[in-house]
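User: Hi! I have a protein structure encoded as tokens and I'd like to know what sequence might fold into it. I'm fairly new to this, so please keep things simple.
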């Protein structure tokens, strides 16, 4: 990791229309640094559908295709197959969609694409709600969070369900590579995407992308909150390479879930007992991840 040189070429131009401190813009910037100019991107309805600006303005220095909310998996499949049919099989095809367009509305076409073994990249940039349309709850919204459709008030109707684990869903499809990444750890993110260029088949990336607007934080805290998510083990960094788990960053600080949640307005309604309950769930998930890493790596050595 320390020897990784981050590419200097910028394929995302200044002048986009994203909110201040938008983590999704960093996710795209780093992704294109890793994949390079020989890339085609397709984007469904999401924040990134408006971030590039109004035609003929553009933010990306690569070809971009807009699609309907639910069809990113089908779009990248069609683009890749068309390229291969014309002998252009060295072009990276990237589906870049939010959590709503991936974990909810687009999961059927994504599932079909990875089940067929399409040689494509898919990034779910996760700002943990439908941010483009007004901060509505998605299945990737974490337990305890306020959104405009899980309001607090007297009834305390915050999100009661745990976040959907898209990496595990992709692993269940037996794809060759799936990984988490974070905008606070660009070297890790870029390394994982560069690794994917040498893997044939579907590659899925779940990128943590802070949203100051929806999370009720200062734009200046974008990277800090993203780092706290990893250090607190709320969002571990790991990869699953042909079924073998590898934790790519071991937290260096003893950060509690409370320290991660308190700076965010979307969690300020939670009581001490409710935060302790979420802490217990995070600890359980982290220990399970450690066991998966240990078991799959030992099994791999035997084989």
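Assistant: Happy to help. Inverse folding works backwards from shape to sequence: for each of the 303 positions I chose a residue that suits the local structure. Here it is:
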């Amino acid at each position: 990791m320390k020897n990784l040189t981050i590419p200097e070429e910028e394929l995302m131009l200044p002048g986009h229309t994203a909110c201040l401190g938008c983590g999704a813009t960093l996710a795209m910037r780093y992704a294109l640094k890793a994949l390079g100019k020989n890339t085609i991107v397709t984007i469904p309805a999401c924040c990134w559908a408006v971030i590039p600006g109004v035609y003929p303005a553009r933010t990306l220095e690569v070809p971009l295709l807009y699609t309907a909310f639910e069809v990113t998996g089908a779009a990248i499949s069609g683009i890749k197959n068309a390229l291969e049919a014309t002998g252009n099989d060295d072009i990276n095809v990237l589906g870049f969609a939010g959590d709503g367009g991936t974990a909810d509305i687009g999961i059927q076409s994504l599932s079909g694409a990875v089940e067929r073994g399409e040689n494509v990249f898919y990034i779910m940039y996760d700002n943990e709600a439908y941010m483009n349309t007004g901060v509505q709850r998605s299945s990737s919204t974490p337990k305890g969070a306020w959104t405009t459709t899980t309001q607090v008030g007297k009834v305390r109707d915050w999100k009661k369900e745990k976040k959907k684990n898209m990496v595990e869903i992709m692993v269940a499809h037996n794809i060759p590579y799936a990984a988490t990444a974070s905008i606070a750890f660009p070297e890790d993110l870029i390394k994982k995407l560069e690794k994917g260029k040498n893997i044939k088949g579907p590659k899925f990336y779940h990128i943590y992308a802070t949203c100051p607007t929806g999370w009720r934080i200062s734009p200046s805290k974008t990277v800090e909150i993203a780092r706290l998510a990893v250090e607190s083990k709320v969002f571990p960094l790991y990869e699953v390479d042909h079924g073998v788990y590898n934790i790519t960053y071991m937290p260096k600080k003893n950060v509690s879930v409370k320290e991660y949640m308190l700076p965010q307005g979307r969690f300020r309604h939670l009581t001490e007992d409710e935060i302790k309950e979420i802490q217990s769930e995070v600890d359980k998930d982290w220990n399970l991840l450690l066991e998966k890493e240990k078991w799959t790596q030992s099994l791999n050595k035997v084989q």
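A useful reference point when you look it over: Strands lie at 39-43, 64-66, 92-98, 121-126, 177-182, 203-208, 238-241, 244-247. Feel free to ask if any position seems puzzling.
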